Amino acid sequence: PPLLEVQNLHKSYNNVEVLGGVDFTVQRGQVKALLGPSGSGKSTILRMISLLEPCDSGTILLDGEQIGVIGGRVDVRPAPERILARQRTAIGMVFQKFNLFPHLDATRNVMSGLTTVLKVPKKEAREQALEMLDRVGLAARAHAYPSELSGGQQQRVAIARALVMKPKLMLFDEPTSALDPELVREVLDVMEKLASDGMTMVVVTHEMRFARSVASEVALFDSGQIVEQAPPDRFFDAP
Ligand code: ADP
Ligand code: ADP
């Protein structure tokens, strides 16, 4: 099966529909770029897939297994918290604004999910965190606090924090939009390396060069629906 399969996802806020039946699949090892105007539902779809919020209806399959579900509906509310917590660890999420814990250094930020959710012993969690910080090029800043790091470094810590949980799927919500232009490249480089290592990714982005050169497929959102979907060579070179 595809690694991720999203079927007929619907979501409304206050009776205003923001997702009007979204379908897409992502094969293992592929990168899907989601493009489209602000307000078209891209962030919302990521929050549904990451089980941060319930959908109104539809189905999400991860590796062929329905997630966030009771009775065929994507409604996370009735699902026991423990099941959800376990399912969420299979999906890493990186936000526009880093969302690091300000009172924890880089290592402790990366360790946090390991020790709290997966109950990994501290010593082992620390080793894995340091390994992951090395992977994103931050071994030398392992003990820096978020306020001592540039935006690009903070975002790389956030990526390491997601990766250390060994997710099957990584979601990125405009990961470079809050960065100064000169820091965008260092984050895209880490993401490109992840993609070439075979990580399955869904990336909301305005970085067209990234979408063109790294994505396996591009999906264009408009008003809560996918209006066009194609590999980047066809998507960008269409007349
Ligand atoms: P995008 O990521 O494409 O910019 P979003 O998914 O953030 O779009 O938003 C889609 C629409 O849903 C927007 O009109 C937005 O204002 C609305 N929306 C998103 N989250 C909420 C919420 N929690 N409550 C009410 N409206 C929301
Ligand atoms: P993004 O930049 O990712 O599109 P936004 O800045 O639109 O996100 O939204 C940030 C947060 O605010 C999200 O958690 C979203 O659910 C919430 N939100 C967005 N639009 C609305 C809205 N119209 N009413 C209430 N909450 C909203």
Automatic annotation (TrEMBL):
SMART domains documented for this protein: AAA
Record's InterPro entries? AAA+_ATPase, ABC_ATPase_HisP-typ, ABC_transporter-like_ATP-bd, ABC_transporter-like_CS, MetN_ABC_transporter-like, P-loop_NTPase
Any keyword Nucleotide-binding? yes
Q: Where is the signal peptide?
A: none
Q: Which UniProt keywords apply?
A: Amino-acid transport, ATP-binding, Cell membrane, Membrane, Nucleotide-binding, Transport
Membrane topology term reads: Peripheral membrane protein
Q: What is the top-level taxon of the source organism?
A: Bacteria
**CDD domains reported for this sequence:** ABC_HisP_GlnQ (cd03262)
Main location (coarse class): membrane
Query: Which molecular-function annotations from GO does this UniProt entry contain?
Result: ATP binding
Subcellular location, record wording: Cell membrane
- Domain ABC transporter intervals: 4-239
- UniProt family annotation: Belongs to the ABC transporter superfamily.
What this protein is called in its record is Arginine ABC transporter ATP-binding protein
Which species is this UniProt entry from? Actinoplanes couchii
